[in-house]
Amino acid sequence: MNLLIIFSYLDVVSLCRCAQVSRTWNVLALDGSNWQRVNLFDFQTDIEGPVVANISKRCGGFLKVLSLRGCKSVTDDALKTFAENCRNIEELNLDDCKSITDSTANSLSKYSKKLMILDLASCTAISDQTLKSISDGCPLLSQLNISWCNQISDNGVEALARGCKDLKVLRCKGCVMITDDSLLHLGLHSPKLTTLNLHNCVNISDDGMQDMARGCTNLKSLCLSGCLHLTDKSLISLSNYCHSLRTLEVSGCCQFSDSGFQALARTCSELRKMDLEECVLISDASLIHLAIGCPNIETLTLSHCELITDEGIRHIGTSACATEVLKVIELDNCPLITDASLEHLMGCHGLQRIELYDCQLITKAGIRRLEAQLPNVNVHAYFAPPTPPNTDGRQRPRYCRCCSIL
């Protein structure tokens, strides 16, 4: 019995090796109780249907967590056998399992009543029928990833929201068929939602965001990066309803301006991570409002925000979050900031990383002073200065140099 307990701490490879030592060890190592969590990602190129079927028969009701991420050769038939044998599965990762179809979801719906976490990212053959099956048979589902499943539409999301009342995490990056209707149904039926990733869902608008925010008031993490049609109205909706927001990623949302972030900063004081890359309309005014209203910011990305100046960084560097809380600030391609910004950040004793790629007014001396003041900070700087034209008037090829050789 003591040996069985020891085996319970071993990974899959170690258990298989132990099983070859003796008959006694074989029985103990292959005991189903040792196979409650199985991750086959490291063997993805070798895993085919029969392997999954054999594991499911051996593990049976013991198996609770299985990752087949990247196992492209695994088929619906193997997962049907798995679902029949492993009815206590709680977490299943099928990320990038290209061969599975809606048939797999049908099997899970019949047998996997305890399923709570399901990852179907990049399973491009599945459709709305998968979400309808999951909503019918997996009522405990709380986390779902359907990123890059480009056949998923509003019909599937509606079925999911109606059937899975405990849904807390939904990731649907690149699901271009999702529109405001999906956001409406999430707002109506998913009040427990805390994490929503809509990266590159290009067909959503401010109206859908308002419907979602009104109903999902417990939202803590939201990604809207690449949602090009959104305006400040979406930020105002978040400020009105989602006061618990901690992570906001809006990279590439080029219509957001200072007005939207001013509204957000007034009510969302819990914000810890903000990615504002390529929000090209924001200026120092946004940073002033964030410095005042969001004292818990740990990570702030301002890359390609070309209106930001030293004055805005000064407000961040002297804000309530600066002394201990701020850990990462990214300022790539901010052409107006100078060494003065680095001076303003020297009081940020918790700062761990600063990115300064292609900041042409930052100097080697400024970086060295910052590193001397904050020896634990990791500075990433990468310069691509313009070069004189050739005699024929054409620009010479640009070259780059890393700060590690400065």
Account of the 3D structure:
- The protein starts with a helix and ends with a strand.
- The strands form two sheets. It has a 14-stranded parallel beta sheet with strand order 1-2-3-4-5-6-7-8-9-10-11-12-13-14, with no helix packed on it. It has a two-stranded antiparallel sheet with strand order 15-16.
- It is built from 16 helices and 16 strands.
- The longest helix is centred in the first third of the chain and has 11 residues, at 49-59.
- By secondary structure, it is of the alpha/beta class.
- Among the domains are: 1-34, no CATH class; 283-384, Ribonuclease Inhibitor (Leucine-rich repeat, LRR (right-handed beta-alpha superhelix)), CATH 3.80.10.10.
- It is globular, with a radius of gyration of 25 Å.
- It comes from Stichopus japonicus.
- Keywords: Leucine-rich repeat, Repeat, Signal, Ubl conjugation pathway.
- This is Putative F-box/LRR-repeat protein 20.
